[in-house]
Structure prediction request, 1045 residues.
Amino acid sequence: MIETPPALAATAGGSLLVLAILLPCAGILLSFALGGRFAERIALGLTPIGLAIALAVSVLVWRSGAPVVTNIAGLPPPLGIALRADGISCVMLVTAALVIAGAALYARASFATPAGVSEARAPLAFWIMLQAIWAALTILFVGGDLFNLYVALELLTFAAVPLVCLAGKPETLVAALRYLLFALFGSVFCLLGAALLYGAYGTLDIVLLAERVRPQPAVWLAAGLMTAGLLAKTALFPLHLWLPPAHAGAPPAASAVLSGLVVKGSFFLTVRLWFSVLPALPGGAAEAALGTLGAAAILFGSVLALRQPRLKLLIAYSTLAQIGYLFLIFPLASGAHPWIADGWGGGIMQTLSHAFAKAAMFMAAGLLAESLGHDRIAEFAGAGRAMPATVFALGLGGLSLMGLPPSGGFAAKWMLLRASVAAGHWVWAVVMLAGGLLAAGYVYRILAPALSDGVVVLKSPPQRSREGVALALALVAVALGFAPQSFFDFLQIGRAAATAALP
Amino acid sequence: MTGALGPLLLAATLVLPLLLLTACLSARWHNEALALQWLAPIPAAAAAILAIAGGPFAFDAPALRLSLRLDLPGALLLAVASLLWIVVGAAVFASPGDRPNGRFAVSWLLTMAGSLGVFIAADLITFYLVYALVSIPAYELIVRDRDPSSKRAGAVYMAFAILGEALLLMAFALLAAGEPSGSLRIEDVVAALSTSPWRDGALALLIAGFGMKMALAPLNGWMPLTYTAAPIPAAAVLSGAAVKAGVIGLIRFLPFAAPLPSWGEALAVIGFVSAFYGVAIGITQQNPKTVLAYSSISQMGVIAAVIGMALASGDADATPQIAFAAANHVLVKGALFLAVGVAAATDFRRDRLTLILMVALALSLAGLPFTGGALAKFAVKDPLGDGLAAGLANASAAGSALLMLHFLARLVRTASRGVEAAAPGLTRLWPAIAIGALFTPWLLYLAVGDPRDAASIAKLWDGLWPIMIGAALALGLQRWGKSLPRIPEGDTVVAAEAAFNASLPISAVFESLDARLRRWPVAGLSLLAIALVLAAMAAYGG
Prediction:
């Protein structure tokens, strides 16, 4: 009998990972089977359970200081399929559960099955796709095998695209098609890359690949193809053609999930690829190239956000810019340097705080649009007085985007800045500061008219509960700013092994 | 003797304003919170008195990433700043008739928490947090009138505030990087600064960032716009208390332990240029509030010059003296802004006491004997030395006398218009406030020196002659002032705004680029190119 290497061995509590994936999958099947208004109840009922599982996994990882691992069907890789949850898996699982729960609560008002009918198209699709996104993200965050991850990524795309065109308007259909087509191009690239790796090493398990990968043409090409495919799905500049219309056109609850979570799924996979599969590749040129694209995205997205006359488009372009910050993790957290802990913590913190802040902002924008009947920023005068909680949520989210304390956005920027100073990479620091200034500009563009005096006639007052959801998510983004050092130590769990294994 | 009380008061300095803020947001307690919010700075005042009398103390809450410490320079400023917030807050909020709305109250409390917090923040993160608080929420205080000029002022103010935040964030990152043990305490990072490889970058950013807050030339344009547009109580606390965030910033973050001649002299030059620039532009202004703003630019210039001289000679003991001089300005400038409202409410020319007090307060800024200003001037004598700097300081005192007499003249001319009249209660109380502003510094001075030194006959003459020169110049200004050019308030900011507006079309280029990049063929090619470039980069290594 072949002895299983320690990194591949299953640990206690691994069944929780299986449960985390099964839960939303079961929800989808049940929703299909029962249909109608049950889909809503199932989705709403499962989110607290999912959150509890995510928290339980986090506690296990926290206690043991090592990833939780399970091998499906008891077979270790390369025969079986592994699920692994390390520090960043845990925080992403919790984030996903919270944002999905928030979106579900928020969506009840817009996607309730109307009385008198047993089933309606848009609500059923929404509730099922929401659970499908959740399932896909869960697999992405705990998957230990590139093929598995690829499948999850496809599921994510196919679940996200319908959400874009739920309204059924022609322009949203066009946006959804753009999204679908471009994401499919990305999928082809990812699949090609995965096939190359499998051909070269006979496995797609992350831990095994990391041990076997050597600098050679197949790996280089696979890295280029897979990364490009993932960037297409993340909408990193200049591959963002689909994002603004898709995120701005989707219903607010869907936009919150798309902007807050879905683009983070493919980003997460890019992080896995470069930090867990390919750390054996020498140098840092590719990481610097990713950072450069990120920097360009920050400047480009922010300037365009400054020019948008409509709130939802502004927030969508701001997502473009904020995605750019995420990619600074590649130059600032790779290699074996004293500053990579800051770079890593800052990059992950940016991922989390943007997820909450942006979800809150899209929800607040949705409430504004519903109550005012439009989302033209120039006509927001008086909105602050008419719906203070909504505008407050928008402002708190903006605070995090600007990187002002106290907020997760500030904590992220502070750590990334420290890393870039320590690394002597001034260009990242300058771009981050410029991005902060531009973000302040576009947040000011929203808040200055919203807070100014004016008379608005609300078509309907915003629902307190929906305002509460937006506000709660925005407050989480702010609270992240108070994360203690132990939180950042937690993010390193499972990563120490990867960096220690460096030649 | 401080025991546990001091740290508790430090925590309460930040907690009480935030508690009242929460109460403001709740419907149940809204009115009570508004009526009581002028009491919020009381823990700060108590902490300051305790620290002045009994020495420094600290409070740490690692779970909240909060660390506070109060020493003598901070306590001097905290004492007068909290006093100003209490007095002006009472004037604004204690009268039930014309009480401002909740949003104004929330911004007021946030700005207050920040303004008091900068004097007690002990680490980089805490300082950055309270510094943002004292800068950003003040926007709402400035644009309260919602007319076009206050909106413009608010926008310019925000641009400067955010730019200042960005400069300081970078400076703090450099400071943190220069501290080998990873400590974020201000003392530690500043102690490590002299050997840090990033020393010069950090110093340049610190001076630029805090200089912006103090409106040192040429970054001064926002101040006249802001103080002219803001309601009088807001202008009083902003010019009196909030601006001192820049002063305490320089005091806390510049490394006085070892002489830094070139940096110190550079700061002194900037300071003196601002001191005279403020006077030169100020005498062309017509609105008394604008004149006061230019006087602030001039006064902050002198303070910056003193800080520069102390930095050049490595005079770490000068910081209480500098803080004292700044503290005097807190009180005097606050009372003078309130005077503008009083002048609008009453015919103060008939009220001899008010008139005398206004003259005394105005000339206090020029160092009039027996006022706090004379003490302030005396306090910074040592750091300035006997050379050129001392001469320039005297000349700037003469300039201040000229500018303040111009202010009084403008106040007399414009008073009859009756805009922004102070409430009757404030008008009645103003003489007491003015007397407090004139003589409280004598009490505080006990903490930094012996007031008897400052009151000798020789010092009397030192204080008088610049004022006489200023008075002679003021007569000249009365006679020929009309031929002075009319400079728009905010001077250089007008050019900056024009440059900003001219740069806006650049963003249209981004838009057309976006349209091009988002075409299918371009996006497809980009995807392919990125795949190949990344593959090549992976192969190349680095």
